[in-house]
Specification:
The protein is α/β, with parallel strands linked by helices. The chain has 6 domains: 99 residues, PriA, 3(prime) DNA-binding domain (GIY-YIG endonuclease); 67 residues, Arc Repressor Mutant, subunit A, CATH 1.10.10; 179 residues, Rossmann fold (3-Layer(aba) Sandwich), CATH 3.40.50; 190 residues, Rossmann fold; 61 residues, no CATH class; 89 residues, Ribosomal protein S10 (Alpha-Beta Plaits). It is 29% helix and 24% strand. It is built from 20 helices and 31 strands. It has a 7-stranded parallel sheet, with helices on both faces. It has a 6-stranded parallel sheet with strand order 17-27-26-18-25-24, sandwiched between helices. It has a 5-stranded antiparallel sheet with strand order 3-2-6-5-7. Bound molecules: adenosine-5'-diphosphate and zinc ion (ZN).
Length: 733
């Protein structure tokens, strides 16, 4: 909801939050024209001019002569009070300084810039003497894909797959005009009636219940829980339509940029226009355009990565978090926020709605729905004629396999049948590279990273060894670094590349594609590959978890989960939950069109509760059991955790700080917080830095942040020592 902001006249004292790394507000005089609370401004700071946000009236007692005046106003439209509150609340929740959250709001270069660029526009008609060729027709058709603001020659050449000379030759004919256009133009208006698809009975029921919630003028959080292929997207697109009809804006968060391409096409099909996009793959000038237009209400739908949560919406009405359980919503550096949780917070501050969509919700969300905090709507059937795949267990204890083979005879038979029927097969293995470990046969030495305490992983396509912690690569050594014996290395265990090698031998006639994040340089190249596969240009797809996230392959009927036990081995709090989600999602890739599909789990533990829950379709029972386990251990979401990570060049320095903190654990204990540690982190060294962990635990009702903040503020960090506070940690490594 758009709100009016307080105004400060010439010379009034205001507090300004700057982007500078000092954890406090500074007082300035309002400029001669005055300024609104929430305005983005430039202020003198020492000898420099820096960006700031007018936070509110200042009550500081400083000598007036010492107070500097705001230099200029960068963006006249003030940000909404809900966003300012959001900045403060995110900072408090994550125990981060305000400026670091403010930086997330202003991640645009040159906010005030008014650039123009040359654009070609189509007049809509071709002159009678115009000679039409197939290349020229493609050029004209490409304008359908633009939002009406025109295209550059290079964009047009790429879309139409023609050379720029073809386009240049069309300009004199008069059907294309070339114009200087401002870069920051409004996004084309959404047409909510563009192509309303008929909904299934199941979908229509949920849409009508959702509508009632959307009609209420109050914040609401909704879990949209629907089995894979049930058509959750179509349901929340109707919610978006309703919000837009009400004059408000909608934000959709996706867990993976590679999915935005497919998703924006679906939005275009429904609403006639492409949405604004916000993620690391867009250009600086497009970022600025999104940022400005969002603030003016001239971008009605934004699709983005987690950082889109910090955009200055004029009137936000709905946030959708797709695949809400996905762990990539947790930011892993800087401000360690969980975008799913912060989406709920922002929606509540903006008096907006939030829809969390998933086939396999996180236990946190499942529990919030159970306790009545969130409303829950279910889609239990697949859309149209497609049905959920059968899930079968292959008991690996009864299969005959050599130690360097991973495709069991039973799975092989299923794959043969599918390929003979011209159907596609997906083999899922959540391990990038060729083999997770490389050993020297002579001495048993494991090749490790020089900078981390981890194994180097062989990537045979790139002919390199790679560290999955720090990204360092090196060539396969010629002699063993330990015993100096030459060329006697053995790969141990499978990665997707090794599985592909086995598949090529086992199914020599089949065409095989490997999908793994390290094999695609850009979201674009991955999108092209996914489209190629959707058209049926691959018999066997071998992939990591990249493949679990929402791609539709209509001909895919067999999913083989090569090693479902893999995720169950860890001691991670969420090992069972994550494995359940991943296998359920991957299995759900099978049988998405009218051909029925099946998923096969090759397990050595057929009686494991996770494996049983998946194969028997007992999702609700799984969550209930998982909830009981967590509740009895008072683990999240039935207890609270904060992780502390200390790192330093020397392990003594990291330990010293950890011990110092432990000594003042009293203030924690009196606030009801238990301290564990310090202890060496499970991965003790990353990028050459030694790591020590502490873990804080408290009951669900305890607010830990302010205590933790004052506890850590008692110690001084020596030069090279770093301390990170991770509220609601997802990773304990
Ligand atoms: P989910 O996200 O729940 O796994 P999707 O939204 O991807 O499911 O829908 C599954 C498939 O069904 C997609 O191919 C989608 O285009 C199709 N679909 C869903 N709802 C409709 C509808 N109302 N009309 C036509 N096709 C639909
Ligand atoms: Zn490394």
């Amino acid at each position: 909801m758009k709100q009016d902001q307080e105004f400060f006249a010439d010379g009034m004292l205001v507090e300004v939050l700057t982007t500078q790394p000092v954890d406090r507000l500074f007082t300035y005089k309002a400029p001669s024209a005055g300024c609104f609370k929430g305005a983005i401004v430039l202020v003198p700071f020492g000898k420099r001019i820096v960006m700031g946000l007018v936070w509110g009236a200042s009550t500081e007692k400083i000598e007036p002569k010492k107070i500097k005046t705001i230099d200029s106003i960068l963006e006249h439209r003030p940000i909404q009070p809900e966003l300012q509150n959001f900045i403060r609340r995110v900072a408090d929740y994550t125990v981060s300084p305000l400026y670091s959250v403010f930086r997330l709001v202003t991640r645009v270069r040159d906010i005030a810039a008014q650039e123009t660029h040359k654009r070609l526009l189509f007049r809509g008609k071709v002159p009678s003497q115009f000679k039409m060729t197939s290349a020229r027709a493609r050029v004209l058709e490409s304008f359908d894909q633009s939002d009406g603001t025109g295209l550059s020659i290079s964009e047009l050449a790429k879309l139409a797959k023609v050379s720029p000379s073809v386009i240049n030759a069309m300009i004199p004919s008069g059907c294309l005009i070339s114009k200087m256009q401002p870069k920051d133009l409004p996004y084309a208006a959404v047409d909510t009636t563009h192509s309303k698809r008929p909904l299934s009975e199941d979908q229509a029921r949920v849409v009508s219940e959702l509508s009632k919630v959307l009609d209420q003028n109050a914040h609401s959080s909704i879990l949209l829980c629907g089995v894979t292929g049930s058509g959750k997207t179509a349901v929340y697109l109707e919610a978006i339509a309703k919000v837009i009809d009400g004059g408000l804006q909608a934000l959709v968060l996706l867990p993976e940029i590679a999915l935005t391409g497919e998703f924006t096409e679906r939005l275009k099909a429904r609403f006639g226009v492409y949405p604004a996009e916000w993620h690391s793959g867009i250009s600086q000038s497009e970022r600025r355009r999104v940022w400005k237009m969002v603030g003016r209400g001239q971008a009605q739908i934004v699709v983005g990565a987690r950082s889109a949560l910090f955009l200055p919406f004029e009137s936000l009405g709905l946030i959708v978090v797709d695949e809400e359980h996905d762990s990539s919503y947790k930011q892993q550096d800087g401000v360690l926020y969980n975008a799913r949780d912060m989406a709920v917070l922002r929606a509540s501050l903006a008096n907006a709605k939030v829809i969390l969509a998933s086939a396999t919700p996180s236990l946190e969300t499942w529990n919030n729905a159970k306790s009545g905090k969130y409303k829950r709507f279910n889609l239990t059937k697949r859309y149209g004629s497609s049905v959920l795949p059968d899930i079968e267990i292959i008991d690996m204890r009864n299969e005959e396999l050599r130690s360097d083979q991973w495709i069991s005879p039973t799975l092989k038979t299923k794959i043969d049948v599918a390929i003979n029927n011209s159907e596609q097969v997906l083999l899922f293995l959540n391990r990038r590279g060729y083999a997770p470990v490389t050993l020297c046969r002579s001495c048993g030495e494991r090749i490790g990273c020089d900078f981390c305490d981890t194994a180097m992983i062989e990537h045979r396509f790139q002919k390199r060894l790679m560290c999955h912690q720090c990204g360092e690569t090196k060539a396969m050594p010629i002699t063993c670094p330990n015993c100096k014996v030459m060329g006697n290395f053995a790969p141990i265990g499978p990665g997707v590349e090794r599985l592909a090698e086995e598949a090529a031998k086992t199914f020599p006639e089949a065409s095989i594609t490997v999908l793994s994040s390290d094999l695609y340089k850009s979201a674009r190249s991955l999108k092209d590959e996914l489209e190629r596969i959707s058209r049926g240009n691959s018999d066997i797809i071998i992939g990591t978890q990249l493949i679990a996230k929402g791609h539709n392959f209509p001909d895919l009927t067999v999913v083989g989960v090569v090693d479902p036990d893999l995720g169950l081995q860890g001691s991670d709090l969420r090992a069972a939950e994550r494995t359940f989600q991943l296998i359920r999602q991957v299995s759900g890739r099978a049988g998405r069109s009218d051909k029925k599909g099946a998923a096969y789990l090759q397990t050595y533990q057929p009686l494991h509760p996770v494996i049983k829950a998946i194969s028997e379709g007992q999702d609700e029972q799984f969550w209930i059991a998982e909830a009981e386990g967590r509740a009895s251990a008072k683990m999240p979401p039935y207890g609270r955790l904060v992780g502390i990570l200390i790192s330093a060049q020397k392990s003594e320095d990291a330990f010293e700080l950890g011990l110092q903190l432990a000594k003042s654990a009293k203030i924690l204990n009196s606030a009801g917080i238990t301290l564990y540690g310090p202890a060496p982190a499970p991965i003790t060294r990353v990028r050459g830095r030694y790591r020590v962990r502490l873990l804080l635990k408290a009951d669900k009702g305890t607010s830990m942040q302010s205590t933790v903040k004052s506890w850590v503020s008692r110690v001084n960090l020596k030069n090279d020592v770093r301390l990170t506070i991770d509220v609601d940690p997802q990773s304990f490594l």
